[in-house]
Amino acid sequence: MLVDTFKASLDPSVYRLYRRYLYSRYRATEELSQGEVVHEEAKKRLAKMSEKFRQNAAYFDPGAQLALTVHGVELKSPVGVAAGFDKNCDLLEPMSYIFGYLNPGSILLNPREGNPQNPKKDTVRLVVDDDREAIINTQGYPQKGLQYSLANLKKFSEGQKGHAKILLNFSGITDIYTEDAVLDACREIIHQTLPYVDFGFEENRTSPNTDFNKTIQTPEFTKKIIDLMNSHAPGKFKSSKIAPYGSLPPNEEERKSRLKLIKVFYENGGQAVTIGNTRPVETKGFAGKFARPQAGESGKPLFPYMLRMVEDIREAFPDLTIIACGGISSGHDAWQAYEKGATIIQMYTALTFQGFGLVREIHDTLKQRLGGYTLQGYLDKRDSGL
Fold it and tell me: Which of 324, 112, 106, 300 is nearest to 206 (CA)?
């Protein structure tokens, strides 16, 4: 069964059949929606396939052409897996053979169940839209807490693993909704995980279904969070996750608000911005009864919103590293992100629809588009304006 599962994970057409089987096999429970149940089951199977991925690591190795250095950190591939896929650092080893870097989390200080739901009574916090290859969720940061994730990070650092680096995504959200509580939680997360983070940290205040996040998406709090990151993770790569536009074209107020947050983060020592991979949408009209009026939509529909934001950030801050995330579901999409100004990319939702063979397809397409260039050479030429 493991061999079949592994093979299915490499071929998008076979994976779609395998995915259909999982959805026919597993149903919603009283605690989890069907999409969450399937994701947890897929995680269990992936966790058992570390050796298979290790033996086949060459399949995902793009070679020297796509290797690059980001603020002194060498990455074997520009493709990473976005936060949310591996919330609790359970899958670090198998994924370390697939991606250039991993973005586990969001790590929280304390365990959190997330927003309530009762799928058996048709009240859900996550719906999968197969037709549009999208996921709509109001999960609200379910996570097992720092100590659970820390044990997994420590085990990963001491064990057999691939070449992927860790870009740790964290949130300071706790049951105490004050700025000081958020900062205290962030400080403790960084302090304890620092020995096991070899790339950097990505702060996250973007969840559209956690109300307190809206109150701390301000320039003033952005200054506080980057000051904290600078003082407690000196020398580490630092990124801020920024919510994508809610409309296209973006209204001027929204565009200026996003760029102002980025400006504060960048001018005070931040090196990168990660485009958030969920766009706020109203839950009314979607299949299933959501407990909250607003959700985050991820997947293929998000792509044009992400692309426009990459373009705007690149124009405003040409020296800033941009991590393109949101709706990338093919090598062609990835190349468009590079043409607009991306440095590295992340995926999540597309992997749940196509499997890990998508990573190989993106590698192959990027190499074809680069022609005789290396990715590093392309970026150097693009960024120099030649």
Answer: 106
